[in-house]
């Protein structure tokens, strides 16, 4: 089980290289979902700044969600335009773009624009982030703060380090548990050997 990242987040964000010189568009960012394995993590961050949440037709609202990748072969992040209809409890992707900071490259990403019948966990969390604002703590969503996007991008590797530390700890604990399972029970009768 992963420990809350809350105590570490402010330190990571303040110690990032761009913290002192960060400029550009800002948002109120929240870590809403995490997935992956050791050195292959993905984190999903929603921009909860009311100025960046847009009203669309028929009560639908648009939320920016960013998927950050730890693997080097993937883009730095993917920016999603997630449309949410809280009244009908539905969600869909309106568009997405991959951004690679090393090549300073932005490319469109194909996504289904249909309303999701069984949304992936991160898409459902995006919907819940907007539709259930009082349940953020209960749903394990963590505030990252009101910061510029450049600072968020530079802080992502620190978030992956925290995830990897927890993954490594869990692997070690699993090995210890397996070792204990293989040990003979104390004061148990010895099994007869084959002769």
Entry keywords:
195 residues; alpha+beta; Lipocalin; eight-stranded antiparallel beta sheet; 30% strand; elongated
Structure characterization notes:
This protein is an alpha+beta fold and 195 residues long. It has one domain: Lipocalin (Beta Barrel). The chain has 3 helices and 8 strands, in the order H-E-E-E-E-E-E-E-H-E-H. Strands 1, 2, 3, 4, 5, 6, 7 and 8 form an 8-stranded antiparallel β-sheet that branches. Strand 5 and strand 6 form a beta hairpin. The longest helix has 34 residues. The radius of gyration is 21 Å and the shape is elongated. About 8% of the residues have low confidence. Keywords: Signal.
Can I get a quick summary?
By secondary structure, the protein is α+β, with helices and mostly antiparallel strands.
């Amino acid at each position: 089980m992963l420990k809350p990242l809350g105590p570490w987040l402010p330190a990571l964000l303040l110690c990032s290289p761009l913290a002192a010189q960060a400029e550009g568009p800002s948002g109120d960012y929240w870590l809403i979902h995490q997935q992956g394995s050791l050195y292959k993590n993905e984190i999903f961050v929603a921009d909860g700044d009311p100025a960046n949440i847009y009203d669309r037709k028929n009560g639908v609202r648009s939320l920016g969600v960013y998927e950050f990748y730890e693997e080097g072969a993937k883009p730095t992040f993917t920016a999603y335009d997630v449309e949410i209809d809280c009244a009908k409890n539905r969600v869909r992707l309106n568009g997405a773009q991959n951004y690679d900071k090393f090549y300073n490259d932005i490319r469109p990403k194909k996504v289904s624009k249909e309303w999701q019948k069984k949304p992936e966990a991160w898409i459902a969390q995006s919907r819940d982030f907007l539709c259930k604002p009082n349940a953020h703590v209960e749903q394990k969503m963590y505030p990252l703060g009101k910061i510029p996007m450049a600072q968020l991008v530079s802080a992502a590797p620190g978030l992956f380090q925290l995830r990897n530390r927890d993954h490594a700890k869990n692997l070690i604990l699993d090995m210890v548990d397996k070792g204990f399972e293989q040990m003979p029970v104390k004061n148990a009768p010895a099994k007869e050997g084959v002769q």
